[in-house]
Write the C-alpha cells for this entry.
Amino acid sequence: MTSNYHPPTLSEFINEQQTAFPFAKGDLTRLLNHIGVASKLVNREVRAAGLVDILGKAGKSNIQGEDVMKLDEFANHKFIKVLSSSGEVCGIASEENHDIITFDKSFAKEGKYVVCIDPLDGSSNIDVNVSIGTIFSIYRRVTDPGTDPDERDILQPGNKQVAAGYVIYGSSTMLVYTTGLGVTGFTYDPSIGEFCLSHYKIDMPDDGNIYSVNEGYYRQFSPGIREYIDRCKGSDETGGDALSARYIGSLVADFHRNLMKGGIYMYPSTAQQPGGKLRLLYECNPIAFLAEQSGGLATDGKGRRIIDLVPEAIHQRTPFFAGSKKMVKEVEAMIRSYG
Ligand code: AHG
Ligand code: MN
Ligand code: MN
C-alpha cells in the first residue's frame, strides 16, 4: 500500500516558514525558489554530462587564471538568466565574472537583494564524475532600489547575509540552506522534479573524526597546521586514536560530509597561496553561515570568525577552517601556540 504522505517541497516549506513573519512580502521566499529553479537546470545538465557535449574546458581562463570548464559557464549563465528575470535581485557577483553584474531591466533594478555565487564549485571534479556543487549567499542591498547596485552592496560582511546555501550534485542532489533559523536540507526527487524536505534542522556534531585538507601542500603549511595534521594521524605508533582523512576537492562535498558526520575542513594559506585559495564572498561566507547555524564554527585560523571579516574586493581570498566546533577551536589553539 502506498502512503499518501509526501514531504513538503522547497516552495511549500519556505512559504510555510514565511507565515512566521507576517510583514514579510515574500521576496526572499521567491528568490530562494528561483535559486531552486536554476539549480534544477544545472542538475539536469550535470546528470546528463557525458551524453551531452558539456564536459571539458571552455577554452579560456577566468579572472583568477583558472581554466573555465563548459559546465562552469553553463551554470553561471543559468543562474544569471534566472536571477536577472526573477525581479528580486538587482545584481550579482560571480566567481566567473570580474565585476559585479548589474541587471538592466527596470523591474530588476527594483530588486531588494544581491547574490554572491560560485555557480559551479569543484570544477576539477566535473570530468571525472565526482560530486560538485553550487554555493550562494544573499544580502539585502544597501543602495537605493531603482538604481544600479555597486560594491557597497556586494562588499558586506558575512554577518549581514540574510540567507545562504549550497546545492550538491552528489549521489543524490540536495539543496541545503539557512535564513538564520537553523539549517535545512532538501533532496531532489527526479520523479516529480522537486526538492523535498529531507533534513530538518541539521546539527553538526560538536566533535568529529574526519579531517579534510589537501595534504599535498603539507610542506607549505605553517608549523601549527602541520602539528595539527600530525596529531590527526594519532598520538602514537598504534594509531588507535587516528582520525580519518577525507578530501574530495569540492568544498561543497567536503563540507557537506563533515556537516552530517562531524569533522573539520581546512584550506590554510600555503607558500604558493599566502592569502589562502578559497574566496571569501561566494565560498567561505555562505559555508561559514551554514556552519554556525548548524552549531559549528568557521574562522580564518587567526581567531576571527569568517563572517566578521570586512571584504575589500569581490574575489578576495582567505584561509578557511570550518566544521565541528571543538575541532576548529583545537586547530586555532594549535596555530596560536606556534605564534
Ligand atoms: P572552484 O571549482 O569553484 O574554482 O573551487 C575549487 C575550490 C574548492 O571547491 C575546493 O575545495 C578547492 O578549490 C580545491 O583546491 P585544491 O585542488 O587546491 O585542493
Ligand atoms: Mn569553488
Ligand atoms: Mn566555481
